[in-house]
């Protein structure tokens, strides 16, 4: 994923996902709704183990070619996450999904690459 804090969201194009089976059937149905106000609540855990409340949405984006691409978008508080983790435009990050707790709450881990000076 590439960081662009100006857009107040993290877009994750479907064609870049290693796996796309991380949603429950109920969560998938919520994201299929055409109503753009719906989203799935989740927790994002950053490298400092700070937990952030976020929403996951599905977005259709028009390409220059006129075709549409499907993306997941992490929104609601993304700019705070960017600021707290000192992320900059074009930083290369990874997002891992997992389930936590007895109820299997949808969660994401923000994974940063190792610093360049690390052996």
Word description of this protein:
This protein is mostly beta strands and 119 residues long. The protein has a single domain, classed as At1g16640 B3 domain (Beta Barrel), CATH 2.40.330. Helix content is 13%, strand content 37%. The chain has helices at residues 25-32, 78-84; strands spanning 10-13, 40-45, 51-62, 68-75, 94-100, 105-111. It is globular and about 45 Å long.
Tags for this entry?
mainly beta; At2g31720-like; At1g16640 B3 domain; nucleus
Would you kindly provide a brief summary of this structure?
The chain has helices spanning 25-32, 78-84, and strands spanning 10-13, 40-45, 51-62, 68-75, 94-100, 105-111. With 119 residues, it is mainly β.
Write the layout of secondary structure elements.
Layout: E1 10-13, H1 25-32, E2 40-45, E3 51-62, E4 68-75, H2 78-84, E5 94-100, E6 105-111
Pfam families: At2g31720-like
GO molecular function, one term: DNA binding
Protein name: TF-B3 domain-containing protein
Low-confidence spans: pLDDT under 50, at least 5 residues?
A: none
Strand order of the largest sheet: 1-4-3-2-6-5
**Biggest sheet features:** 6 strands, mixed
SSE order, as H and E? EHEEEHEE
Determine Rg (CA atoms, Å). 15 Å
Please state the overall shape, judged from the principal axes of the Cα atoms. Answer: globular
CATH class wording: Mainly Beta
Q: Structural class of the helices, strands and pairings? A: mainly beta
From the N-terminal CA to the C-terminal CA, the straight-line distance is 24 Å
Round the mean pLDDT to the nearest integer and report it. Answer: 87
Q: What percent of residues are in strands?
A: 35-45%
CATH topology title: At1g16640 B3 domain
The helix fraction, in percent, is 10-25%
* Helix segment tally: 2
Write down the domain tally: 1
Could you tell me the number of beta strands? 6
Seen as an oligomer or otherwise, the chain set is: single chain
| Name given to the CATH architecture | Beta Barrel
Keywords: DNA-binding, Nucleus, Transcription, Transcription regulation
InterPro entries: At2g31720-like, DNA-bd_pseudobarrel_sf
Organism: Arabidopsis thaliana x Arabidopsis arenosa
Subcellular location: Nucleus
């Amino acid at each position: 994923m590439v960081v662009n804090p100006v857009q107040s969201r993290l877009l994750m194009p479907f064609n870049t996902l290693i796996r796309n089976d991380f949603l429950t059937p109920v969560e998938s149905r919520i994201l299929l709704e055409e109503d753009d106000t719906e989203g799935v609540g989740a927790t994002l855990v950053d490298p400092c183990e700070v937990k952030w409340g976020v929403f996951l949405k599905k977005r259709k984006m028009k390409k220059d070619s006129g075709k549409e691409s499907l993306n997941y978008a992490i929104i609601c508080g993304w700019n705070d996450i960017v600021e707290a983790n000192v992320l900059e435009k074009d930083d290369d990050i990874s997002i891992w999904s997992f389930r936590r707790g007895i109820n299997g709450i949808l969660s994401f881990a923000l994974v940063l690459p190792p610093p360049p000076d690390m052996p």
